[in-house]
Amino acid sequence: MTLNQPIQVPGLLLNTWIPVDDNVILNLDTSRRQGSSVCSEEVPEIFQFFVAGYGEIFKTNLLGCPSVMLTTPEAARFVLVTHAHLFKPSYPKCKEQLIGPSALFYQHGDHHTRLRKLVQGSLSLETIRNLVSDIETIAISALESWSGGHIVNTYKEMKKFSFNIGIFIIFGCLDAKYAEELKENYSILEKGYNSFPSFIPGTLYKNAVLARKRLSQTLSEIICQRKEKRLEEKDLLGRLMNATDEKGDILTEDQISDNIIGVFFAARDTTASILTWIFKYLHDDPTLLKAVKDEQEAIYERNDKGSRPLTWAQTREMPLTYKVIQESMRMATIISFTFREAVADVEYQGYRIPKGWKVLPLFRSIHHNPEFFADPKKFNPSRFEVAPKPNTFLPFGNGVHACPGNELAKLEMFIVVHHLVTKFRWEVVKSESGIQNDPFPIPQHGLPARFWKKSSSNNDN
Predict the structure, then answer these.
(1) Would the pTM of this model clear 0.85, i.e. be above it?
(2) Conformational region of residue 175, where left means phi above 0, alpha means psi within -120 to 50, and beta covers everything else
(3) What is the DSSP-derived secondary structure letter of residue 384?
(4) Structural domains in the chain, sorted by start
(5) pLDDT tens for residues 209-218?
(6) Coiled-coil ranges per the record (predicted)?
(7) Calpha distance 93→136 (Å, rounded)
(8) How many CB atoms are closer than 10 A to CB 227?
(9) What is the pLDDT of residues 168-178, one digit of tens each?
(10) Binding-site residues
(11) H or E segment at 114?
(12) What's the gap between Cα 221 and its chain centre?
């Protein structure tokens, strides 16, 4: 059966570069339709336009290569879980060069399974439950650095916080010199990641390539230092350095570096984006904020007004906060879709997907489908009082390539929200609707806000 194929959307001009295949990129953010300004949140709605006209599965060349778009939970499960062996991760070569071709999320098959076990070992529940106090210390330091009433870019500050968590998870205690080198060069890499892949000196992409080389040099120095001291740490770097396969082979320095940078990439902006949305949703709904505050203050009081640290058990006693986190992840859908490539001709519901075609399960379409989530554009944490239908809520993906750091990300959110609502008050400077892609969806302008630390006698928010 032939897949329905959409035509080009009339009147839509696109102006952010999105990578699609090898060195092919597409300008896909937004700006005007028939002369009018368009909020960038409309970009994912392009796919909704196609669904309305062509059905729940359709083919398109919109992304610069033959692609199949899948918009149902059943199709997502087919690609990501039950028939995952027929589809491999597929990302542009220009992106692989910046992150590193050996990074976990580029792998497939047995090698992916082996790498995932190594990474998962540093991110499992058994491991992170012992890290609550460390993460709490980093979170408190971040929040206190914003207090004083000056305007901060919430998203940028959250990126600093999540990057510091990444450094701690990967290296444990790291020399300040190396930490600054990693932050500085990763920031340059990030700026070039979604730019046009030009090697002309001075361009964002070329600067990113050079920054990537410096990152490798810094990581090589850290690895050499550990080898000289014969340290066998239990952090992620230690696990990667000490791992051997069935033949006794160890990972090369390049493979270790690729996976460390891959963890930074996967962990930083996504977690920062969700935290920024949580701040906005709580700020915009005073009734919800009060309810979350009441839940968190009950824990705060049990901890002698915060004089004792949070415990792992207490992070499991935040049901309303968890619903807010879930609904924030559904509404924002930080990862709108994922790229796969058919490794053979695949039959699905009477359709043939040719080998080599890109296949994209569209998470946003599923998360915003009123069949699964009533009134999907409304922020409503109470909807999660009932568990979503299977395969309809996929904020961390699904199957063998699901995010291995999902429990760490949620723990960060619990801890930040606890200290935010119990110890600080804040106001958004420009509370605007709409989404800005950077490259993940965030509130407009990164949510500029002012933060103040509460006095012990002031419980107002």
Answers:
(1) yes
(2) beta
(3) G
(4) 17-453 (1.10.630.10)
(5) 999 999 999 9
(6) none
(7) 38
(8) 10
(9) 999 999 999 99
(10) 403
(11) helix 110-121
(12) 28
